[in-house]
Amino acid sequence: MGRSVPAVVRALDILELFGSAEELSIPDIHSRLGFPRTSVHELVGTLVERSYLAPVPGQPHRFRLGVGVFHLGAAYAERLDLAREGEAAAADIAAVCDETVHVAVLDGRSVVYVAKADSTHPVRMVSAVGRRLPAHCTAVGLMLLASLDTGRVDELFPPGEKLPALTSNSLTSPKQLRERLGRIRESGLAEEYCESNDAVACVAAPVSDRDGSTVAAVSISVPTMRWSPERAAELARLVGKGAEALSGRLGHRGGPG
User: Fold this and answer.
1) Prediction pTM value
2) End-to-end alpha-carbon separation of the chain, Å?
3) Which of 53, 88, 167, 196 could be 137's S-S partner, Cβ–Cβ 3.0 to 4.6 Å?
4) Which of these, 119, 49, 54, 65, lies nearest to 90 by C-alpha position?
């Protein structure tokens, strides 16, 4: 990378102020950043000329973000690809824990795996991108179901219906599922032990988009021979950080969601 250009850095510093303030004046910017007032005038004038800032109607000495920022943001959003970004995020997580990492989305009562990174261990979970599994049997699926409102969960899993099982540990009761989802909402993480595979345990965290909506979940899958309460806690922290990183790649700025 080359040397930073001071004028460009200052212009970006000014734009970033508007991430937490709807409107600012020249004196506001000067006091917050400490730049010479003349420089602030020149930089704001240039940003207005290029439509990255705009005068507030009726208050020409106050400014807000302009349509140029919207156009750039929209172009960036259009180029985001959950599968591509998920692949990169999964690889980053797997590089730390050397376990299989999945990114999945909800499709009705199923989850679909859209990205993965494999463990290098000879004993590991075998899976494939594009695979579908019952959502209530998987950590990613439980995490995604927990993001839905209770009315939608009732539509998907009507009370009294017996749910299909993949193992003897799988949830089969909608009542038990609702109770489980409530605990997941409180903790912000989902775990499952031998509910989708007799020899695998998983922990998952939610992924949010720029609007704060849960659009995917990330999980770490571990053979039960390498699972323990201590390992589960370690992986829970890691998958949480990894999900936050992927959310950031999708434009999420933090906070609820």
Assistant:
1) 0.70
2) 35
3) 196
4) 119
